[in-house]
Amino acid sequence: MVSLFARASALRAPALIAFSLLLTGCTESPHQHPAPSPGFATLEPGEAAPQFTRLDVDGDSVHVGPGQPLTFVNLWATWCAPCIEEFPDIERMHTELGPDGLRVLAVNVEEVDTDALKAFAADLGVTFRLVIDPPAVLQDEFKAMAVPSSYLIDSEGVIRSAWTGRLPHDAFDVVASHMPTVD
User: Fold this and answer.
1) Model confidence at 111, in pLDDT bands (50, 70, 90)?
2) How far apart are CA 74 and CA 107, in angstroms?
3) Domains of the chain listed by start with CATH number
4) What digits encode the pLDDT tens for the residues 78-107?
5) Residue 141, φ and ψ in degrees, nearest 5
């Protein structure tokens, strides 16, 4: 018979791993689609992305779901060093691929002070849209194990690529490969 202690320890392991990831942040991964840890069910390419409507820091509504343009969604937090480290890569996606149809949305998972986020973005030279999540549920809905987590969502609302942790060096090329072709 399995002891009560052994059962309790087995149940706590996935929660402890998730808590550790959230506290320490993620480091750069050489893999585009990391294998999920045991006990976690992350959203993967081919799955439907959660649909949502939120406000950006300027008070404008933004919707993610079917019928929307190719969208890069980044879940981040102001206290997360890897999140801030990847902002120049996300800015490059926005400036180089945005004119061809890519929409970049950085969803802050905890901060709701839009003035603070605007100042934060200005200090970093960020020009992509910052979105707030006042109900603080999108990290759970995307089943993101940690921040940063990023998702490329097509116009059908399907996840085409997903990354947990700091974006890998080839993320720009992966996103560019999904850009709509212009005839």
Assistant:
1) confident
2) 6
3) 4-177 (3.40.30.10)
4) 999 999 999 999 999 999 999 999 999 999
5) -65, -35
